[in-house]
């Protein structure tokens, strides 16, 4: 009896499940498939419509909200990464601009230094030309005054200055001055002039 009742109970459970399967679940799935096909043919996005309706149902709404929160978080992270990248690029641009400014300053300093050196060169050339003119005037003076007056002045000069003057006067003026020097100074000046002449020839 017990086994018979158990078998009848199992059969009743199986038949109820089969009824549920045949009369409810399969027709429901079939109806859903047909609806999905119809909506798709009519050009409606079934998933978008489902999402819109699902947001109106409290339980499903929570699921969609979680989805949206995850998407927003991902979006914010992306924005943060892009902002960080922009800041890095701005910092690099600022660094490059600073380097350009430094190079511009270096170029400007170099240009100023070049101009200063050129000015010094021009001043030195002007001084050299002035000294040349002054020296020519001195030579003319020694060629103009008498050898008797020039000889004592020569002996009082530094040897280098005396040799420079004697080396540039006319030969006849030089001979006259040398005649008016005492023998010792004449011999010394002759030796210095010879040495200076040899140095000039060696340099050439």
What does this structure look like?
Helix content is 92%, strand content 0%. The protein starts with a helix and ends with a helix. The protein is rod-shaped, with a radius of gyration of 58 Å. The protein has helices at residues 2-41, 46-56, 58-144, 147-156, 159-168, 171-179, 183-203. It is an all-alpha fold and 204 residues long.
What are the defining features of this structure?
0% strand, mainly alpha, disordered N terminus, 92% helix, 204 residues, 7 helices, single chain
Summarize the structure.
The chain is mainly α and 204 residues long.
Specify the number of helices: 7
Q: Rg, please?
A: 58 Å
Low-confidence stretches: 1-5
Q: Which bin fits the share of residues in helices?
A: over 70%
Oligomer type: single chain
Order of helices and strands: HHHHHHH
Distance between the terminal alpha carbons, to the nearest Å?
146 Å
Mean pLDDT: 78
Broad structural category: mainly alpha
Sheet with the most strands, sense and barrel status: none
β-strand number: 0
Sheet-strand content, in percent, reads: under 5%
Shape: rod-shaped
């Amino acid at each position: 009896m017990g086994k018979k009742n158990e078998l009848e109970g199992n059969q009743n459970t199986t038949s109820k499940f089969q009824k549920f399967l045949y009369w409810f679940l399969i027709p429901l799935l079939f109806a859903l498939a047909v609806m999905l096909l119809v909506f798709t043919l009519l050009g409606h996005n079934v998933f978008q419509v489902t999402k819109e309706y699902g947001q109106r149902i409290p339980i499903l709404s929570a699921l969609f909200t979680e989805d949206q929160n995850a998407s927003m978080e991902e979006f914010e992270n992306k924005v943060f990464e892009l902002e960080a990248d922009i800041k890095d690029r701005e910092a690099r641009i600022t660094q490059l601009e600073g380097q350009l400014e430094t190079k511009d300053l270096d170029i400007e300093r170099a240009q100023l230094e070049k101009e200063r050196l050129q000015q010094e060169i021009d001043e030195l050339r002007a001084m050299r030309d002035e000294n040349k003119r002054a020296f020519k005037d001195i030579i003319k003076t020694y060629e103009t005054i008498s050898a008797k007056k020039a000889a004592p002045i020569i002996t009082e000069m530094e040897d280098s200055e005396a040799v420079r003057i004697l080396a540039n006067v006319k030969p006849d003026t030089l001979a006259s001055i040398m005649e008016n020097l005492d023998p010792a100074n004449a011999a010394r000046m002759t030796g210095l002039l010879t040495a200076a002449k040899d140095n000039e020839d060696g340099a050439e």
